[in-house]
User: Which sequence fits this backbone?
């Protein structure tokens, strides 16, 4: 096989294309995407902003700021801190926060599934 | 209405969430996304890498490099230049380039439509 033969480029690719997909929500100046989704999911699971931040390798201050900016931007309370503050009594999601996490999780999962299905339909024989 | 009353944050948001979605293809070290898609679409429509680059506010060199890197990375020829070179005789997409643009366009459009539909299902009553 000659090194510079353009036919070399026409051989079937060793590796197929894989579809990539990302979803988010837009409102005002703050988007709701994977970062805030996983942060709120961890607040829900661990009952604490501090624990959630730790799990994500973020500082407490960064996590708290991320949540507060979203709340302010959207006019919705997402997290409630218990008596003693977050570092004392822990934190829970508000009903609005819970609904947002639940809906976004479903939305994200469905779109990712459809993305793979649509890719298989469109690229059935390989591009 | 008191300025610091947390109830202020609970009023219905003035603006609803809008879904955002982005798709791409992954293979090797180079992704096929909107940038390369529109570049190849413009090569198809204008019959020239130089014209396509101009339409996208890119230099000819940047556009050419983007196409060549993708071809090398995936082992597929995407663009053919005619006698006289691209600046002389123009450029056309190879069958593989045409198929990739066509399939990606369909894939992108379908996923975006489903993204909006899925959002409406999941967030029917607003988060």
Assistant:
């Amino acid at each position: 096989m000659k090194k510079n033969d353009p036919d070399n480029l026409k051989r079937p690719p060793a590796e197929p294309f894989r579809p990539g997909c990302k979803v988010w929500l837009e409102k005002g100046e703050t988007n709701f995407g994977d970062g805030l989704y996983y942060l709120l999911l961890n607040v829900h699971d661990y009952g604490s902003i501090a624990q959630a931040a730790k799990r994500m390798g973020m500082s407490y201050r960064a996590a708290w700021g991320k949540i507060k900016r979203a709340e302010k931007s959207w006019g919705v309370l997402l997290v409630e801190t218990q008596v003693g503050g977050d570092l004392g009594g822990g934190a829970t999601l508000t009903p609005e926060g819970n609904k947002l996490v639940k809906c976004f999780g479903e939305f994200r999962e469905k779109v990712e599934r459809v993305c793979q299905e649509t890719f298989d339909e469109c690229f059935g024989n390989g591009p």
In short: The longest strand of chain B covers residues 18-27. Chain B has a mean pLDDT of 86. The CA atoms of residues 114 and 120 of chain B lie 10 Å apart.
